[in-house]
Amino acid sequence: xxxxxxxxxxxxxxxxxxxxxxxxxxxxxxxxxxxxxxxxxxxxxxxxxxxxxxxxxxxxxxxxxxxxxxxxxxxxxxxxxxxxxxxxxxxxxxxxxxxxxxxxxxxxxxxxxxxxxxxxxxxxxxxxxxxxxxxxxxxxxxxxxxxxxxxxxxxxxxxxxxxxxxxxxxxxxxxxxxxxxxxxxxxxxxxxxxxxxxxxxxxxxxxxxxxxxxxxxxxxxxxxxxxxxxxxxxxxxxxxxxxxxxxxxxxxxxxxxxxxxxxxxxxxxxxxxxxxxxxxxxxxxxxxxxxxxxxxxxxxxxxxxxxxxxxxxxxxxxxxxxxxxxxxxxxxxxxxxxxxxxxxxxxxxxxxxxxxxxxxxxxxxxxxxxxxxxxxxxxxxxxxxxxxxxxxxxxxxxxxxxxxxxxxxxxxxxxxxxxxxxxxxxxxxxxxxxxxxxxxxxxxxxxxxxxxxxxxxxxxxxxxxxxxxxxxxxxxxxxxxxxxxxxxxxxxxxxxxxxxxxxxxxxxxxxxxxxxxxxxxxxxxxxxxxxxxxxxxxxxxxxxxxxxxxxxxxxxxxxxxxxxxxxxxxxxxxxxxxxxxxxxxxxxxxxxxxxxxxxxxxxxxxxxx
Length: 609
Description:
- The protein has 609 residues and is α+β, with helices and mostly antiparallel strands.
- It folds into two domains: 17-218 and 229-332, no CATH class; 461-607, Sandwich (Jelly Rolls).
- The protein contains 16 helices and 17 strands.
- The chain has helices at 2-10, 21-31, 50-63, 68-92, 99-109, 114-118, 123-145, 148-162, 171-181, 188-213, 230-242, 252-272, 276-290, 310-331, 336-376, 405-413; strands at 385-389, 394-395, 398-399, 418-421, 436-444, 449-460, 473-476, 487-488, 495-496, 500-503, 510-512, 524-532, 540-547, 557-562, 570-576, 585-592, 598-607.
- The strands form three sheets. Strands 1, 4, 5, 6, 7, 9, 10, 12, 15 and 17 form a ten-stranded mixed β-sheet that branches. A five-stranded antiparallel β-sheet has the order 8-11-16-13-14, with no helix packed on it. The protein has a two-stranded antiparallel ribbon with strand order 2-3.
- Helix 5 crosses helix 14 (310-331) and helix 9 (171-181) packs antiparallel against helix 13 (276-290).
- The two termini are 50 Å apart.
């Protein structure tokens, strides 16, 4: 039944794509080898998580970039973790048959888990939690049945947890906590001796890291002075647990009512006097498992990075289940607990459905962004740099392209490049790069969609023709033979064989095309092959374009690109956006705005379908 509820809650995720880091992990999975080398510490990475890396490599070889199986695996692992939590709590409190399924159900349906379940990059959290719970469950069985085989199984599961994520480092401490919380607990000496092999495996893992990196790894630049605000961190994180709501999606009144209801539950459960040992153990679980991420929490109002609370939330759900059971036992009403559980389940399911919506939008926008980029710039070489302004980063807490734009382009279209996110694009000539494209994104509030609103670029002059495709129009001025319909506003413009028509920064020094007769009213790429003279003065090209509706060049729109210094030719890419009226591009005019001379060798016009 719980599995069906989880499937119902997260079914919409199967329709969405990948997000941000997913593309980086897919790209790395494509390059990974399926052999024992995957368990070596990567000297170029700052985490050692070989089991997750293996899962990504296997999934990529099975499914490529088809996202549905990846999301299905996340949902399945989350459901499995809920079942393991049920099995673990049954071992902790075998005398109470209802606390365990309540705790597991709360964990599966807790709205705080949306990021961890929806985002495939969180495989590490799901896998580590799975083997963490298996380790504790088999350890409890080993203690209760005095079985060496269960103990050996527990050690094996712990090794898999260590290979999954660093949150497993807290397990030896939590094992002691659970041992003490047992009604029939082993002697303290037995508990301590039993945890020593776990510490040995953990020490071996840390030694591997240190030998490869000279450090223990992890994120750089994080806040290390957490002790001064540790109580604030714990209090804020508990608030996130009690009200796991994205504040960008819910009104403040709704959040306050939710917090009030949870406060009443906590107070009523504590004064009831039941399940006190289990409640204290649950609080200890929360505190211990939160320690590795103290420098990364609390999470934001939009629940970004809530995946960090995936394992701590298991302890929280055990505590809430114990409180619900305590209140029900005090009330002694037969239907009080079922009614309360139905209300909580409905509230959790509704909240999950709402909080999934930004992720559905983010997945759609991730695909739309890379498709639009490819449509406008079909190929970017590995030597290219793409500067982006306003690149879609997140939508209401859901990740889009904080990372992964280059990798997604490579996975889908076969070319990878360097991405630089800048607050404001600067002139091309100031970038000291000769293979550069600049793209500006803008958000359309009405359609909740990011669109490309400005593009420009410069590349070294290619050996082949300046533009490919049967729909492209091309003109070659380098031969100085025929301008094929292009007129010069200044008849005495000089043409240099091999270089082309030389423009001057004069009022009438311009090249003007005849009517182009284009049929597409969409984006158009105009590529101008130009060579700068030896002058040190700044030199710029202005491209003006007009539709048949424009009466004169004063009505036309324009783009200015700065010409790079040096005597070699470059291809300057002008990207003309669609006309707001829907009119097609009809005429072009090319002039120079300042400085010395610029020679125009080729011009090509490519309608972008």
